[in-house]
Design a protein that fits this description.
The protein is mostly beta strands and 120 residues long. It has helices spanning 21-25, 92-98; strands at 6-9, 14-18, 34-42, 48-50, 53-58, 64-71, 80-83, 102-108. The strands form 2 sheets. The protein has a 4-stranded antiparallel β-sheet, with no helix packed on it. The protein has a 4-stranded antiparallel β-sheet with strand order 7-6-5-8, covered by helices on one side.
Length: 120
């Protein structure tokens, strides 16, 4: 069974872990928290990959690109994937994790958005 966990961005820091969403980040909270879900996947160094992370992907042909990990339910495709997309026939995140490529967490979209500025 997949472990379902969340972390929260409070505008300054990422807070880990979030145990009780309704008590910690319910509608009565005055702070605008952004919740991010754990993907259940770890990078090449054993670091957990979370929604909102920025990852470096080295594909099997030596390509080196950066991507944001996103949950894509708004597109009718309920899965974690990479944005910008990898040019593969399947889910990019699954393709890298299950294939011959490498994936490494290098930051997150809230603390390090500049990491994606040269990628489009």
């Amino acid at each position: 069974m997949r472990e379902i966990r969340f972390r929260a961005w409070n505008g300054i820091n990422i807070e880990l872990p979030v145990y009780d969403l309704s008590k910690q980040y319910g509608s009565s909270s005055k702070k605008p928290y952004i919740l991010m879900q754990y993907t259940g996947i770890k990078d090449k160094n054993g670091k957990e990959i979370w929604e909102g992370d920025i990852v470096r992907v080295i594909d099997e042909w030596g390509g080196d690109t950066k991507h944001e990990v996103k949950y894509c339910s708004d597109t009718g495709y309920p899965a974690f994937d990479l944005r910008p997309y990898l040019d593969v026939e399947s889910n990019g995140l699954s393709y890298v994790v299950e294939g011959d490529g490498e994936i490494e967490v290098i930051g997150n979209i809230y603390s390090n958005p500049e990491l994606l500025e040269d990628e489009s």
